[in-house]
Amino acid sequence: MKLPAIIDHSHNLTHSEVIAYSLDPRVESLLSGIDFSIITPSDQAELIRMSRMRGIDITTSPTLQESIKRFIAEFKNRVGALDSPKDRSNTVRSLMSNWNVFVKWCESNGIYSTLPASIETVENYLNHRFNSGVSKHSLVMDQWAIRRFHREGGCPDPTEEQRIKGLVSKLKRDLVFVHNDITQQATAMRKSAMKTLVQKWGGENATLKQMRDLAMMVLAYSTLLRGSELARVKIEHFEINSKRGAVLTIPVSKTNHSGNPDSVFIIERQMIHVYRYLAADGRSITDKGYLFGSVSSNGKKSIRRIKPLTVQSIRHVFNEAWELTNDNNSQGRPFTAHSARIGAAQDLRITDGVKIQDIMHAGRWTNEAMVLRYTRNIDAEESSSVLLQDGF
């Protein structure tokens, strides 16, 4: 019996039965001249697209499936997805989690072709997630995971289709208007909180831990660093500029993988907190190694380690800063590793003469959307409409 070239997932085939469909002679004939040892993911994705236009589904080929697996294995190894969960970055953990949810849903619905996934599959999955009550952020993360795995695996990206883009936009609007899902951002650590921390952790009798934590918070606020970037700061990343301060080089950030590092200037008044912590830890600005190290439970002794602090350790310091700077009866949410970044952006937003583009540069954002999102509450409080409400 001759099998059709295009897989119909509604038959709920087993994986072995799916592979059997590759018997279509057109598939192997088309692939016979392809050297899969040198093909790139983008070249392979284009090959799949061109074959589809001719009515041939080459993704049924074991040779092509092996190529997809190879690309994905190389990708996982490159980003550390094969490391133990505690050693993975937050981004990689989130990526793998969202992708695995998609794969499990496909399997539970008898769909064995997740790479590449059809537009219909992605559409049905996103609708399923919406009906399950996930947040707007979760929908965006679902879309991101599907996009990333398809591109890294050398498959056409279904999320690039206008049909999927339109669906995601619609579902996000529905979440806001139907389910009142307005994205909550991290609590901002504003300048007032920084002043409190300097007063309480910057005294003469401060412990090593307090000096480290203060240097960490000051650096986070002054540079708008993300938690993962803060953890990876090394002493040799600082270049002292006489008595004016220092330039901190950021080799790799979330939005910059170009190889050309970003840099930010830190004035002497704030660098003093870094110098003080290093001196108490028996180090100096001329040493090498990760700036922030572990401290013993009593807060008085450093624990030498080769690896940087975990982002979870950074979050714990932010949480302690929240407890120190807020009333015990406060109903707000504690600080997170993003709080200083958001607070600094908000403080810049209300500073005379500072433009959106200036804040984008300070926080190394590539577009205005995130700046506007982080400062939306400030914009509302400082808007001209507030002036209309005053005086009567």
**Rg, alpha carbons:** 26 Å
Count of domains: 2
From N to C, what is the helix and strand string?
HHHHHHHHHHHEEEHEEHHHHHH
Number of beta-strand segments: 5
The overall pLDDT average reads 83
In helices, the fraction of residues equals 40-55%
The CATH class of the largest domain is: Mainly Alpha
Beta-strand fraction estimate: 5-15%
User: What fold name goes in the CATH topology slot of the largest domain?
Assistant: hpI Integrase, Chain A
CATH level 4 superfamily of the largest domain? Intergrase catalytic core
How do the strands of the widest beta sheet line up side by side?
Answer: 1-2-3
Report the end-to-end length measured between terminal Cα atoms. Answer: 85 Å
Which architecture of the largest domain would the CATH scheme give at its second level? Answer: Orthogonal Bundle
What class do helices, strands and sheet pairing give? mainly alpha
Number of helical segments?
18
Residue windows where pLDDT falls under 50 for at least 5 positions: 1-22, 383-392
Q: What global shape is seen?
A: elongated
Main beta-sheet strand count, sense and barrel state = 3 strands, antiparallel
Task: Kindly describe this structure.
Helices cover 53% and strands 5% of the residues. The chain contains 18 helices and five strands. It has helices at 15-20, 25-31, 41-53, 62-79, 90-108, 119-131, 136-152, 162-177, 191-201, 208-223, 227-231, 268-280, 311-325, 339-349, 356-363, 368-374, 376-382, 384-389, and strands at residues 238-241, 245-250, 262-267, 294-295, 302-303. A hairpin with a 3-residue loop joins strand 1 (238-241) and strand 2. Helix 5 (90-108) crosses helix 7, helix 7 packs antiparallel against helix 8 (162-177) and helix 14 runs antiparallel to helix 15. The longest helix has 19 residues, at 90-108. It starts with 14 loop residues before the first helix and ends with a helix. The model is unreliable at 1-22 and 383-392 (pLDDT under 50).
